[in-house]
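User: Round two. Same drill as before: sequence, then structure, for each protein.

Assistant: Same drill it is. First protein:
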Amino acid sequence: VMSILLHGDAAFAGQGVVYETFHLSDLPSYTTNGTIHVVVNNQIGFTTDPRMARSSPYPTDVARVVNAPIFHVNADDPEAVMYVCNVAAEWRNTFNKDVVVDLVCYRRRGHNEMDEPMFTQPLMYKQIHKQVPVLKKYADKLIADGTVTLQEFEEEIAKYDRICEEAYTRSKDNKILHIKHWLDSPWPGFFNVDGEPKSMSCPPTGISEDLLTHIGNVASSVPVEDFKIHSGLSRILKARLEMTKNRVVDWALAEYMAFGSVLKEGIHVRLSGQDVERGTF
C-alpha cells in the first residue's frame, strides 16, 4: 500500500495539519512508511500573491522540517513529471520516508464560475492566456516525433469527449439521490434498503464483579517487590485500592477496568496521545 496526498500550493503552506502530520510521519505508532505528497502549485493559491501568502520562497518548504526530498517539476512537461513521480515512488519504496512532488503549473480559469482572476492577477493572466495548453503542446511534440499520428490523437480526444458526454446525458436520467451511494463504504448489513440504519443492538459487555475486583487490585499494586515508588503515586494507588474495596469507581479506575477486561480476553490495547507515555491515564 502506498499513501498519496494531493495538496494545493496555498493549502500546503498554510494549513497547520500539513505541518502536524509531517511531524507524525516518522513516529513508530503513526508512520505510513512514507507518504507521497503531490502539490498542484498554480503559483497563486486562490488569488493571493505568494509574497502575501507565506514567508518562504516555495510552498513546499514546510516539508523541509523532516528533510523530505522535494522535487520541483515543470508540469508543462509530462515526461519530466512522470520521471519525477517514478523517482519519488522509488525513494519512498527504498527509504520509507515522505517525499514531495511540486507540480509547478498555472490555473487557466478562475477559482470557480464567479471568479475572474484578471481582477487580482492581470499580468500573470495575460501570460497564461498566451500559453499553449499542455495537451496541445505534448500532442504536437509526439506528432512531430512520429510517435502518434494526428488522426490517432484526434480519435483519442473524440473517445474521451464521448465518455464525458454520455456520462452527462446519463446523469440527467437520475431523478432520485440515494444518500448511501455517497458514502465511501456503505457498511454491508448496517443499512436497510432505504438507507436507514437497521435497529442497533449491542452484545452484552458486562463482566463479573470478581473480575472487576481482580483488575482493581492489580491496578492498585506495584509489579516488583520492594520497589520504591514516588510518594505521590503511592497515594494514588492506595486510594485506588480503597475504591476497589468499597465498590466505587472514578474515571481512571473505570478506564483501567475497561482496558484490563479487554486485555484479559487477549485483545491488544494501544493507547496514543501526549499524556500516555508519562502515565497520566
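Second protein:
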Amino acid sequence: TPLLSPSRQILQEGAESSLRQLLIEAFVSAGRVDNITMVMGLHPQYLSSFWKTQYLLLRMDGPLPYHKRHYIAIMAAARHQCSYLVGLHTAEFLQVGGNPAWLQGLHCAPQKLRNLNEINKLLAHRPWLITKEHIEALLKTGENSWSLAELVQALVLLTHYHSLASFVFGCGINPEEDQDGGHACRPPSPHSDSSPASDDGMGGSGGKDAMREVEVLMERMKLLQESQLEEEGVTQEEMATRFELEKTESLLVAPSDLADHSLQSNVLCFVEDPEFGYKDFTRRGEQAPPTFRAQ
C-alpha cells in the first residue's frame, strides 16, 4: 500500500548507506574491494560480520606473523583447488613480505608449515578422522613445534578457508580484474533489475553459456514430450532412459575452461596427496570410524 512505501524507501536507503560504508572500510583496509565482498554486499549485515572476522584473523594481533597466515590460507584453499582464493592470498602473501620462494610449492615452505599438511587434508575432506595424536604431534617439543596459541589460530584459518572455498564455488565467483581470467564485479544495487552475475559482472560469458545449456536441454525435453504424445505405447521407463541420455549429453560435458592445466599446477603445487578426498562417514555394512570428541 502507499502508506508503506516511505518506510520501505528509508530501509532501502539505510541498506545502501550501510553497504557503501562497508565497501569504503574494506577499501581503506585492504586497498581493494574483492569480488567476495561485492557478492556478500547483497547481505550487508552478513558482510559486516564476515569482514570483521577476516580482519581479526588476518590483520590483528596474534601469535602467527602475517605472511604465515596468508600461506595457511593458500594451503587450505588449494586443498579444495580453489584457484580464486589461492590467487588472492598469493598476492597478499607477497604484499606483507612473504618469501616468493615458498610460492613454488609446499615443498619449499618451512617444515613447520609443511607439518600442517596432514591435519589440513583431514579437516578439508574427512574431519572425523582427526585424533588427539594429530594435535599432540604438532605440539610436541622440537625445532618445528607449534605453540598451542599458534596452532589454534592456524586451525581456525584452515577451517575458515575450507568453508570460504565452498562459498566461492557456490556463488561462481571469478578472479579479480588484475588476476588471470579476471572479471569486474559491479556493486549490487537494490534499484537495478539486473543480477550481480550480469554480462559485465562476475558471471561473464560463463553465465550465458550455462543458461544456454539449460535452454537447449529444455528444448530437447519439450521435443521428447511431444514425441511421446505422437508415439503411443512409449513406457515411462523408456522416457526416463531418454531423459537421462539427453541430460548426460548436454550437461555432463566438461567445460573447456576447467581443463586449464597451468592453472591447476599453480594450485596443486601446494597440495600433497591430491587423490585424498571426501569419503562417506558411515557406509551400510561398515563400522563407523572412532570420533574425537572434546566437551
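The two ends are 52 Å apart (CA to CA).

User: Perfect.
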